[in-house]
Amino acid sequence: MESSLFAGGATLIIGIDEVGRGAMAGPVMVGVCAITASLTDFPAGLRDSKMLSAPKREKLAPILLVWAPTAVGAASAAEIDEFGITACLGLAAKRALIALHSAGIPVGDSTVLLDGAHDWLNPALTSKLRVITRVKADQDCASVAAASVVAKVERDALMVQLDAAHPHYGWASNKGYGAAIHMEAIRTIGVTDHHRKTWVKTPTGRTE
């Protein structure tokens, strides 16, 4: 995909993917990865993060940081409650793109490859970018796959840290998704500041 875009005149491609969109606790994170036509060799084993085991992701992530400029942006559970998940995808991506810009990447000149069928990025930006949406781009676009890996590794590490402070929810293993141990802890203990409270139902069936 990237090769065809470069052949068509693109000078810089930024792959973007999100992680944690469907979790009940923790932030949503968006990874970005900027590549140019000179990057002809992709790191061995690069795949969509969901197709890699945790050890393989953790081994690959530092290689990707050297291979191409990357960044990860986050939007907190509180922000998700306030603004909604779609707006927070854009907010997290905007923060990641600002980090790339601060590192000297000419973000405004880029063509963005966005995983999915909906452009949730441009509504969050003051200066619009050329965005190409592609379903399953994380499976067949190297820049998007790289973005997914770095974002997944960073978010997983954060959820492990949060698990140490809140061990009853099993976040080290379920990463904030609705596993049985997580749901039972919500029922018996309640929610934390890291929960998306508008997403969580209490035993009465009402949201917190």
Automatic annotation (TrEMBL):
Localization per record: Cytoplasm
InterPro entries in the record: RNase_HII, RNase_HII/HIII, RNase_HII/HIII_dom, RNaseH-like_sf, RNaseH_sf
Domain annotation RNase H type-2: ranges: 11-208
GO cellular component assignments: cytoplasm; ribonuclease H2 complex
Enzyme Commission code(s) on record: 3.1.26.4
Family statement: Belongs to the RNase HII family.
PANTHER family to which the protein is assigned, alphabetical: RIBONUCLEASE H2 SUBUNIT A, RIBONUCLEASE HII
Protein name: Ribonuclease
Gene source species: Alpinimonas psychrophila
